Amino acid sequence: MNLTQERVMGMVIAGLGLLMFLNTFTMSFMMLADDPGPRLLPRVVSIALILCGIGLAFYKSEGAKQLTFKLNENSKRMVISFIALLAYALLFNVIGYIISTFVFLSFLTWYLTKEKDKATIWKSLINGFVVTVIIYVVFSQLLNVILPAGLL
Predict the structure, then answer these.
(1) Local structure of residue 36 (DSSP, 8 states)
(2) Rounded to the nearest 5 degrees, what angle is found at the Cα of 136, between the Cα atoms of 140 and 141?
(3) 133's torsion region: left (phi>0), alpha (psi -120 to 50) or beta?
(4) How far apart are CA 35 and CA 57, in angstroms?
(5) DSSP string, 130-142
(6) Which of 132, 82, 134, 70 is nearest to 111 (CA)?
């Protein structure tokens, strides 16, 4: 199977549609007699995504570009930022808002800065702390949103 941009995008879209469809089983709502509930629209959209993704993956297009996996500096930054975001999302409920947000913001600020000296490390830590505290105060104290406590 040749990997083209269309095939990769088709597989990604079908995978997202499958995740969306599986996620509809976790929705809870009050059952009424003939009402399909709030699950119907997400299921229809997810099935459409799966079908479109499969169609895109197996559609033979003329002049499709072959996929090359060369990571330039910007692509590398994007991939590492995405991995950091995934780790943040997975650890958010486990270790809590304060620790996960502070580590995520400090790392991302440090990583995306061109200079990697000692001053940059301190600026990144201060930035992570200040932004974490501001968001915590706004959401927890002013808007009364319950943030995950985790280890604290």
Answers:
(1) -
(2) 30
(3) alpha
(4) 35
(5) HHHHHHHIIIIII
(6) 82
